[in-house]
Amino acid sequence: MAVTIQKIAVELGRTAPVADTPEALQWASWIARAERAITTRAEARGVEMDTLDPDVVDDVITYAVVRRITRPIDGAESTTDQLGTDVGSWQQTRRYSAGAGDIFFLDAWWDLLGLGGSAGVFSIQMTGAPDVGYGYGPGHPQYTRIWP
């Protein structure tokens, strides 16, 4: 993998942080964390990292780190919304727990890597009528038993 803080800065359209500053170390940490997350998910699905397209891996790492930099709310502890109207104003503070590792991957990014979906999970489409009518229980005037 070849994602660097300089490449992240290019994606953000800004100057890269100076080496060994807290911001540069933070970005490098997030890059490493994103790499580990991809490796862990690939191993859990029995996929060798060598089989993944390195350019796509770099893209996904870049997306995740840029998202973390530009959307800190994913790892924020709280945020305050304010709204002003002619009648008055309103303010609400919402509290969030910090995200696990503060790096978040969209499902579409896992799909790009071929690591999307839930391993071993399936769904069944049920057909036919329920054994009681339309959510009404016994005693309700519209309750009807469909099956004897």
Classify the beta-strand content into a percent band: 5-15%
Number of helices: 4
Instruction: Report the uncertain regions.
Output: none
Instruction: Please provide the count of β strands.
Output: 2
Tell me which oligomeric state these chains represent. Answer: single chain
Secondary structure class reads alpha+beta
* Sheet with the most strands, sense and barrel status: 2 strands, antiparallel
Distance between the termini: 64 Å
The rough form would be described as flat
Proportion of residues in helical segments: 25-40%
What's the arrangement of strands in the largest beta sheet? 1-2
**Averaged pLDDT:** 77
Radius of gyration: 24 Å
H/E element string? HHHEEH
Overview of the molecule:
The chain has 4 helices and 2 strands. With 148 residues, it is α+β, with helices and mostly antiparallel strands. The chain has a two-stranded antiparallel ribbon with strand order 1-2. The model has no long low-confidence stretch (mean pLDDT 77).
